[in-house]
Amino acid sequence: MRGTGADPVPCPALDEVPPATAPRSLRIVLVTETYPPEINGVAGTVKRMVDDLHRRGHELWLVRPRQGRHDRDIERERLHERLVAGCPIPMYREMQFGWPADRMLRRLLAETRADVLHVATEGPLGWSALNVAQRANVPVSSDFRTNFHLYTRHYRLGALKSLALRYLRAFHRRTDVTTVPTRRLGSELAALGFGRLAVIRRGVDTELFTPQHRDAALRHSWGASEQAPVVIYVGRIAAEKNIELLFEAFEAIRSRQPAARLVLVGDGPERTRLARRYPHALFAGPLRGVALARCYASADLFLFPSLTETFGNVTMEALASGLAVVAFDYAAAGEHITDGATGRVVAFGDAAAFVSAAEGLASQPQLIQSMGRRARDAVAQESWDAVLAPFERLLHELALRPAGPPRSALW
What is the pLDDT at residue 2? Predict the structure, then answer.
């Protein structure tokens, strides 16, 4: 029975997601509040999901906020794209949330006779889509994408943490199933009452992110010799990424190896302040595609101090690029790094251990290289095609279910 607010059940493993008994092309309406050309982990993952489902022969209607007055997405015809009004997120202004669009969504579900609605993000547009699907009795899947309730403490909004968590729980309990990228996160959300959960892993583009993109000329432009360790960080330059710890770790490295270099790829509200405070750091700005892959491969050590990830796609990209990684023992790092073999994982929140691990690795170039080789091998089989096949099966399973009663909002 769909969305009745039953007690949470354990997350099924990937091989427990039921295969479709009669595979066929599905009519899928996919709602997201972020999508390329925006640069962030959610946008990139949703794009991969869209591409994979389209390649597998499913018909897609993509609903997202307009990203500018002259938004012209080249995929609009292929994806039957629908653009809605949006507004920047107050603490994340380079991203938007979409305004509710009940009327357009009602018309879209009726016209397309959608088999399933998938909601990738939990903003007002996503809530609007849930309302419409509930009335139309269309099955709904969702993704748990961002720990917004954990962000509140980094923006002096700690009093809103409980409210944010209640909203996220209410949102996902209205769906038939919520996908999570790791079993650990699924267990945490199940304990918080999030409803039915399914583990769908995240992949990495091992053809794009590869050690073969290492570029001596790029390293030279950074002022780094082949002997000097280059530390890289890729992601949002913001408080919720625990960004100060990155600089603390690098300063420890630099005190012992003055020739070391730090490269940051990305943008965010802390960039201007940190650039003034650390003039020796190189801020490359937001990059994508081959330009991003060259930066990864041309570095030596990836430091990722974030404590608020649901997964952390950049960790997978760094491992695929042949980098040793230092991160906390959770999310992608907890799933894919073997401590001491393919990188270093330290106890969640242990800042001193993070700094010590980074400093120790940076002084051992041969160990960094061997870890990087093993890291590449460890994620070589994590292709998007392999990890998204269970998601397709999950959508088939939803589409084949008998209709249930309308879902109720649980707060």
Answer: 42
